[in-house]
Amino acid sequence: MDRLRGRLGFKGEKGDTGKVGTPKVYQGLFTELQVDKNVDTNYHYIILNETDSYCGHWVYYDESDEVWRDGGLYQAQGISQKSITLDMLSEELQEVLRPLMGGENHE
Q: Which pick of 32, 39, 40, 86 has the fewest CB atoms within 10 Å?
């Protein structure tokens, strides 16, 4: 279980990033967050901007690289609509589905 905690820790627990507790809301784009000097890097944030593909994702500041990183969907209960692409599937499943979708079957 300790390996699962990794460097981020569980919700409400201080991980190696030094952040604690529930994420704050960021209503701009993830790309805007990267250059926003008004954001406190001591907190995690959730991107809540429907025009951003990171909407609903929690992000954390990576101090070693000085960039914000995507932590994935925040408390996801399932897979969001249209979030899985063909290249995310196993090669075996891609081979079965590609001809059905009008693509070529590469071997």
A: 40
Nearest CA to 11 out of 39, 46, 41 is that of 46
Same domain? 12 vs 56: yes
Residues 15 and 64 occupy one common structural domain: yes
Paired residues of 69 in beta bridges: 60
pTM reported for the whole predicted model: 0.55
Number of domains making up the chain: 2
Residues 22-73 have pLDDT tens digits of 789 999 999 999 999 999 998 899 999 889 999 989 999 998 999 999 988 8
Q: How long a stretch of residues is the chain?
A: 107
